[in-house]
Design a protein that fits this description.
Chitinase A, domain 3, single chain, 38% helix, 5-stranded mixed sheet, two-stranded parallel ribbon
Length: 160
């Protein structure tokens, strides 16, 4: 089974969220359910159904985080100037102007950089895997559904 490769920051954030949801979160939802039960008939009690839905979503998130943490592998940051897991990379497609550059975080979907304007790209995607190990200024090519495409790495930075 594949491990979930996470940065230390993402692992710490998920651990804190898991702890919060399994303690404060469960208590808070149980209180909401109890208050809604006191209102009477549960069949037509919107507050009760909303609280039970919230409980279901929260328990699903708890199981998801638990799965990530049970099989987590902490990855060290890539060296400066090199694209690796946990790197925010700025790329431009061959033939496009530098002003058309796009920024991506290479890593797990749970990696959430402080710069919220960055989309997460899987390192196993065609573009993501071709970028791994590339240095700032390098041009890499990858097989896209409509043919081979080239991108230039304009900048790299470690996500925080």
């Amino acid at each position: 089974m594949a491990k979930h490769q996470l940065s230390q920051a993402a692992h710490d954030r998920l651990t804190a969220e898991f702890t919060d949801l399994t303690t404060r979160g469960r208590i808070q939802v149980a209180d909401k359910i109890e208050r809604a039960r006191e209102m009477g008939d549960l069949k037509e009690n919107g507050d009760y159904h909303a609280a039970k839905d919230e409980q279901g979503h929260m328990e699903g998130r708890i199981r998801q985080i638990e799965s990530f943490l049970e099989d987590a592998e902490i990855i060290p940051p890539a060296p400066d100037g090199v694209v690796g897991l946990g790197t925010i990379v700025t790329i431009v497609y061959d033939g496009d102007a530098d002003s058309d550059a796009e920024r991506y975080l290479i890593g797990h979907v749970e990696e959430r950089p402080e710069a919220g304007d960055v989309s997460v790209m899987s390192p196993s995607s065609p573009l993501g895997s071709s970028l791994l190990g590339a240095k700032k200024g390098a041009t890499v090519s990858y097989d896209a559904p409509n043919g081979k495409l080239k991108v230039k790495v304009l900048d790299t930075q470690t996500a925080r």
